[in-house]
Specification:
This protein is mainly alpha-helical and 278 residues long. It has ten helices and five strands; from the N terminus they run βαααααααββαααββ. Helix 7 (137-150) runs antiparallel to helix 8 (167-182) and helix 7 (137-150) runs parallel beside helix 9. The N and C termini lie far apart (66 Å).
Length: 278
Amino acid sequence: MSRGQSISFSFPPFAGWVRRIILACTGIYLFQAVMNVFAPAVVGVMREWLALIPTAVMHGAVWQLVTYSFLHAGFGHVFFNMLTLWFIGAYLERDWGSRRFIECYTFCVVGAALVTIAIAYTHFLGASPAVETLGASGGIFGLLMAFGILYADQEMYLFPLPFRIKAKYLVGIWVVVAIIAVFEPSQGVAVFAHLGGLLFGFLFVKFLPSRGMSYVASERYFGIRNSYYRWKRRRAARKFEVYMRDHDRKVTFDEHGNYVPPDDNDKTNGGSKSGWVN
């Protein structure tokens, strides 16, 4: 996608992680809607176990840092969240690739949850650690922030509106709306997740490696593993040198633990430099 062209959000691609997340959230919402009619207790148990409840997380329910994003409070909640995810996420996933997209989304979902928990324990504006939070808004606001940074001056057609708007202005509008919503008595607690998502979306684009966290983690893992193996080789070489010295034999290893063949005057085994032959 060229960053110098306008984007029409009328028919964004519906594939990859965007499709998986939308289908999962929609499927869970429909399941809850059916259970609300036939077995309301099931919905209560689902919200108790899967919604974000700070006190539960602090007592070990860490899965709620992610699972809360799959639950929604009503049709309008899930519809507009999934519509926004489709519009914004489809283009980010196409440009970033699936791995970096899902890393950003998950990073923002978890980050929004952590912000919500932190605010809940301050009791700011009546926030309480016993109040549940649910919805994918944290992750979606994070994607919105990422899009606004990456495509700040890109003009977009927002179907069905008949005018274009730059991405940075769209993000600015949503930031203002999110801040105002914090001070609404009925919404303030949950909207902290929106602000948390915006914050972590900014952090992801500005400070995390462009190749993605999984790539960096794998590089770090293999680097540590290789360092460990090199240390073991050097240690084994030093022990072998001591062993051979105790038996009046001299062997030499370099600083990496690699065997150094003797000089020509000290060669044995027919002048072979391939090592010791028993």
